[in-house]
Specification:
Blueprint lengths: L28 H11 L3 H4 L14 H13 L5 H10 L1 H7 L6 H10 L1 H17 L25 H11 L8
Helix pairs in contact: 1-3, 4-5, 4-6
Length: 174
């Protein structure tokens, strides 16, 4: 009896919806991030750019913030990985609207706006509290110091390495 396989038609033109937002389900994380960033005050980001319009056009700070936040939600912190995902991943492409910021641009944006990005944390917390998703309370940090056992004397191979050094380096190699 012959096998019954479905074969891919890689040369078949694909008619996708023109609007990339239709490629994702309505409850996708991308839309949550975009809505959250739209509700944030990004004036601190916009003030860092020239108001007279001279110079090369920069990527919209709202898009860049959404890109970084979405990347962090996906567990991606590397600007090189985020750059690759802007080409291959639909969620990232929806955020960027098809634009492709390179890794250097992403890294420079993060470094240039480090303080403003840190300030977004409290805005996001207030936004989540207003939606009833979190409750704000007091967080206490404990400064207890614990003894560690990571000294060179505590590692069994260190003694063997010293003996090997005495024999001219013929010993266990790492």
């Amino acid at each position: 009896m012959p096998q019954n396989f479905l074969f891919p038609q890689r040369d078949q033109p694909l008619l996708l919806p023109v609007d990339m937002r239709e490629w994702l389900p309505e409850d996708d994380l991308v839309f949550v991030v975009l809505d959250a960033v739209a509700a944030l005050d990004l004036g601190g980001f916009r003030r860092r750019y020239r108001a007279d319009g001279h110079g090369r056009a920069a990527f919209d700070p709202e898009m860049m913030v959404a890109l970084l936040l979405y990347g962090y939600c996906q567990g991606e912190r590397s600007s090189r990985v985020i750059e690759r995902r802007c080409v291959r991943d639909v969620g990232y492409r929806v955020i960027t609207g098809g634009l492709r910021p390179d890794h250097a641009t992403i890294a420079r944006f993060r470094a240039r706006h480090q303080e403003a990005l840190g300030g977004l944390f409290s805005q996001v917390l207030r936004l989540l509290a207003a939606e009833g998703m979190v409750s704000l309370g007091m967080i206490s940090l404990d400064g207890t110091k614990l003894a560690g056992n990571a000294s060179p004397e505590g590692e069994p191979h260190v003694a063997g390495d010293r003996e090997a050094a005495g024999r001219g380096g013929r010993g266990r190699r790492r």
